[in-house]
Amino acid sequence: MSNSIQAIRGMNDQLPGDLICWQQLEKIAAEVFRLFGYQEIRLPVVEKTELFARSIGQATDIVEKEMYSFQDRNGDQLSLRPEGTAGVVRAMLQHGLLHNAIQRVWYTGPMFRHERPQKGRYRQFHQIGVEAFGMTEAELDVEIISMTCQLWKQLGLTSTVLEINTLGASDSRLAYRSALVEYYQANRNSLDEDSLRRLEKNPLRILDSKNEAVIELNKNAPDILEYLDDESSQHFQHVKELLDNLGIPYVRNPKLVRGLDYYSRTVFEWTTDKLGAQSAICGGGRYDELVEKLGGKKRVPAAGFAIGMERLIELMKIEQLCQPEKRQDFYIVQTPGAARETGLSLAMQIRDAGYSVTANVGDTSFKSQLKKADRCNVRMALIIGENELETSSITVKQLDDGEQFSLSSENFVAEVNKYLTTKE
Ligand code: ATP
Ligand code: MG
Q: HSE (CB half, 13 Å, CA atoms) of 184?
C-alpha cells in the first residue's frame, strides 16, 4: 500500500478541470450582487468559538456536534467558521459600520462542519452569501430572495423551488415553543431519542426531523401562524404579496425552521428535486435580534442568505449549464538553439496582444511537441524550425483540421490578429 498522504475525509481538492464551473458561478454571482448594490467583504476563517456559540446557538447541531474547535498555543478557544453570518456581524460591529447606516455586503469562502461526509455533504464546503443591515421592512426580505432568483436566471437553472415560512418575533416564538413542547410532551411515545433531546433544548428543530414516526406526528403539530404577533403576521403577509407582485412562485412550508437559532420572522430555503437527499441549495432569512445578541448597543434588523456552492455546481452540471473550458490560443513548437530565443520573444508579443500561449519547454521532437499541444486543448501550433528561422517566418498549424500557412515573424502579431478577426 502506498504511504503517500491523502486529503482529509470530506475535504475535497478542487482540480483545474473542475474549477471552470466554479469560476463561472463566482463571476455571475459577483455580477448579480453588484447589480443589487452589494459590496464584497472578506473575513478570517478562524474566529473565537464564543462567537458561534452566541450567534448560531449553544443547542444547535452545528455548535453541539459539528464545529472544528481547538485551543491555540495561547490557550484561546477558537473554531473554524461553520457559516459566514456570525463573522460578518462581528466585523460590522467591530468596525462601527452599523451606526445609522444601511449596509449590503456579500462574501464567499470555505466553511467547516464535522458532519458525516456523503454526496452533497462535506466537512469543508463553500458558501456564497449576502447580508444586509438596517432595514426592518418586508421589501428587504424580498430583495434578497429576488437576488437568488436573478442568480438562478443568469445561470439558467430551472429546477429550483422556493420554500418560505415565518418564525415570528421572539415573544411569539416563545409562545409557539411552549405550545410545541406541550404537544410533544403529550405524544412522547412517538419521539425518537434525537427528538427527545431536542425537546429539552430546541423543540422547534423536532419539526424538521427525518424520523418516520416523528414526521407523522408533525402533521398535526401546532402551526406558528396561530401564535404570531400582529406585526410579524403583517410582515409575513407583506412578504408574500411582494413575492406575488414580482411573480416569484413559492410554497409555504410550516416545518421550515432552519438549523441556526438566530433567525426571526422570514426564513426561506431553495430546494431542488435533482440532488437526492441533499436537496437544499440555499438557506436564509431575517435575523433582527442577532446584532444585539453579539454586543451591538441597539437593535439592527438584518437579513441574509447562504448558497451551498458544491450543491449548486452539481446542479449546474446536471442541468448542463457549465460552459466548456476556453481553448488556449497558441502553443509554440520549436527546434533547439536560436528558435528558442525567437520563441520566447514571440510568446511575449503574443501575450501583450491578449492571446494565450504556451511555449514548449525541453528538447523533444516536433511530433511529440505537437502531441503536447493537442493535449493542452490549443487552437493553433506556431512552428519555428530551421526553415522558418532562415525565411523569418512562422508556420501556423490549425490543430482542428491540420490546415497550415505561413506568416512573417516580423509582423506576426498584426498578421495573426487580422487572420483571426476575419475568421470569427
Ligand atoms: P442541510 O439541511 O442540508 O444540513 P443547513 O440548513 O445545515 O443544510 P445552512 O447552514 O443553511 O445549511 O447553509 C446554507 C447552505 O449551505 C445549505 O442550503 C447547503 O446548500 C449548504 N451546506 C450546508 N452544509 C453543508 C455541507 N456539510 N456540505 C455541503 N454543503 C452544505
Ligand atoms: Mg446542516
A: 28
Regarding the beta carbon of 283 and ligand 1, being less than 6 Å apart is answered: yes
Q: Is 229 in the pocket of ligand 1 (CB under 6 A)?
A: no
User: Which residue's alpha carbon is nearest to atom 23 within ligand 1?
Assistant: 308
Q: What span, in angstroms and rounded, lies between the C-alpha atoms of 70 and 293?
A: 24
> Which regions of the chain carry the CATH code 3.30.930.10?
16-169+229-318
314 C-beta closer than 6 A to ligand 1:
no
Q: What is the pLDDT of residues 74-107, one digit of tens each?
A: 999 999 999 999 999 999 999 999 988 889 999 9
Q: Specify the range with the lowest mean pLDDT, choosing from 27-31, 305-309, 338-342.
A: 338-342
**CATH H-level superfamily of 16-169+229-318:** Bira Bifunctional Protein; Domain 2 (3.30.930.10)
CATH level 3 topology of 328-423: Rossmann fold (3.40.50)
Closest by CA position to 26, among listed 129, 131, 119: 129
Is residue 329 within 8 Å of residue 358, measured between CB atoms? Answer: no
In the chain, residues under CATH classification 3.40.50.800 are: 328-423
* Cα distance between residue 161 and residue 269, in whole Å: 8
Is the CB of 281 inside a 6 Å radius of any atom of ligand 1?
A: yes
Cell numbers for 261, please give them: 437559532
Residue having the nearest C-alpha atom to atom 9 of ligand 1: 283
Measured CA to CA, the distance from residue 284 to residue 264 in angstroms comes to 11
> What is the Å distance from ligand 1's center to 189 Cα?
30
